[in-house]
Amino acid sequence: MSDDVTVLEDEIEAYADGTVARVRVLSVPTSDRFEDGIKYAYHYGEAGADDPIIRFDNHHGVHELHLGGETFEIDYPGLAEIFRAWRAALPEEKRDDW
């Protein structure tokens, strides 16, 4: 990782049912691709699966929602709102971990 990227949050939880949840937020240089200087991913899915159950990210500079194998471009309401939407989509028994 380059010196101008800072890990703000990086947490992962592996569950007994084979699912994994991960929150990763990086501070990156502000650019046309990352106008807010933030790169993020909120992921929940089967460990090792090709497609997530649900993931919000902006890895390519575009804010996206991934549901299974489908990807949807979304408006960016802010990091806190994205986190709340991701957490609300988790199974109820896993929300307390986040």
Number of helix segments?
Answer: 2
The number of domains? 1
- List low-pLDDT spans: none
On the 0-100 scale, what is the average pLDDT?
96
Instruction: Tell me the number of strands.
Output: 6
What can be said about the biggest beta sheet?
6 strands, antiparallel
Q: In whole angstroms, how far apart are the ends? A: 26 Å
Instruction: Note the run of SSEs as H and E.
Output: EEEEEEHH
Question: β content, as a range?
Answer: 35-45%
The residue fraction in helices comes out at 10-25%
**Order of the strands making up the biggest sheet:** 1-2-3-4-5-6
Which structural class matches the secondary elements? Answer: alpha+beta
Rg estimate, integer Å? 14 Å
Shape verdict: globular
Overview of the molecule:
The radius of gyration is 14 Å and the shape is globular. The protein has one domain. A hairpin with a 7-residue loop joins strand 3 and strand 4. It contains two helices and six strands; from the N terminus they run ββββββαα. Pfam families: TumE.
